[in-house]
Fold this protein.
Amino acid sequence: MKLRLAGDAADLLPGVAALSAELGIAVSEGEGMLVRAEASGDLMSLEVGFANGEAYIRYGRKHQFFRGLGLLLERLGARPDEPFDLREMQQFDRIGPMFDLSRNGVLTQAAFERLLNKMALMGLNSVMLYMEDTYAVEGEPYFGYMRGRYTQAELKAIDDYADRFGIEAFPSIQTLAHLEEFLKWEPVKHYRDTKGALLVGDGRTDALIERMIDAASAPFRSRRIHIGMDEAEELGRGKYLDRFGYADRFDIMAAHLDQVLAAVRSRGLEPMMWSDMFLKLASANGSEYYDADTAIPEEMARRIPQDVSMVYWDYVHPDEADYERQIANHRPLGGKLVFAGAVWIFNTFGVNYGLSLKASDAALQVCKREGIREAYATMWGDDGNEGNPFAALLGLQLYAEHAYSADKPEWSRVAARAKFCTGIDAEAFLLLKDLDEVPGSEPDNCMQSNPSKFLLYQDVLLGLFDRQIEGLGLNAHYARLEERIRRHRTPGAALDDLLEVPQRLCAVLKRKSELGIALKRAYDAKDYDALQHAAVETLPAIAESVRELRDAHRTQWLRMFKPFGWEVLDIRYGGVLSRLDSAARRLSDFALGRVDRLEELEQERLVYSSANRFNKRGVGWCSYYYRMASPNVFYHVVNPF
């Protein structure tokens, strides 16, 4: 379709050009449908209309034009000649995703641009880049070493591209804890308090933080910066204790925050930080973030600077009352309150859409009622980042529709917009939840079971999770899911490949999920034929499916991320294949009489943890690959500090 843009459109043309290929449009000066781009007179207002072969988009802020363009083309595609007038009011000043770029998956510039294109059509206007050590810092060669760190030029290019659409990009860094991947290096041990926390109160640390702030903020137009400071429970308990003696954690944190904010203010930056440490320190046991009875002491409130925005993160609560209580608990902190929810792609190959959509719906409605003007959807990549940020786009669409609706948006509207903005049906996105929302899960997987990951990595001879899944029919579940995913594929769609890895994973799990249970049963029954068949037929077939999964996952990874970090998943896949090979050898040795017993299969199967279906916690959750793969020691740290 050819369009003629009228009005003050010069600043819009780079963004329109970036979207033209996927929208199937071209801007022409002499022919095509006339689209008038006009100021709405209200920064929060968007109006889109069409009549008599002409259209208008009236917008208050640049990013709204691109949502308006998407709305216009979506409507014309469905009803080409029908006049319409559409009006929306933006409910949040800033709303968008936070991409985790610190847990192996560092998005390439091209992948980032593809995500920004989708964000523009949705009408999102902010993106936070979470970078622990994945940006270059002058004078610190070990900062992000071999981790795919961004150069200043790469970050500037991402910012330039976001600006085409009026999307504000800004950095989220860590200035206290969560710096394990930098602090692990021996040459920088002088910065280390504990494994992940900086040694505060040391002049060298202060100088480092100033260089970090300079490096992270310089490439961006935005003057905003997230300084982190979350989950620093170990603060002051390592080298700090040895050097300075015991001090109250709040006193240490308050003094360090003053130091960091002085550096931020002197550079004209606007700071924000995670709120959890203040709530934890004020709780009865000093560590509980969601304690409904927490009250911020007056003395603590007085010492918290008011020019730093507090980011309240909450990823797990499905009820509006929970958010109302937590927001009330945060109010005494003062300053501006920002909300961060989640689209659950972390620690899974899929997306926990059951929990994500339910929690996001509740949280965003409360935020609108409570006057919170800024909201983010975090997408963490915990423990290796098997997940896919493109698979989270349906969740981002929900955030976008909340952002332009005072009421809770109708699901049919969210689904229709997702189909237009991504090219993928909402039903296809929702299939990804069933990688983990298996028989035995709690409703909407609200207890966060992640069998898609632990069933792939668990050892078939050790069967660490077998007790928790016994009797659930997971082989059949994954066989059905594989077929459902196959039927929902859209060959030729730009994002159809996000279903390739889940489909290949199902092909593995439809054979592997319950194999350990079957092997234990055959061993106990002395069914030598069944064990030999598993060794020569079943295990090699599973291994071939694992190789196909790995190939698909590698292709997906290198399309999205820099190569650094893939080696971790390569090693994990290699471990699965090696253990399948060893299992086949062990089974054959027993079945053919070369050994008289298999100690692995003589062991009683126990539940993995207290989080299991026998106490209504679903089929289980495990946060770490090395605990899924083996109960034995992967590493032993003698002196981590």
Remarks:
- The two ends are 62 Å apart (CA to CA).
- The mean pLDDT is 96.
- The domain at 451-629 is CATH 1.20.120.670 (Four Helix Bundle (Hemerythrin (Met), subunit A)).
- The longest helix spans residues 528-560.
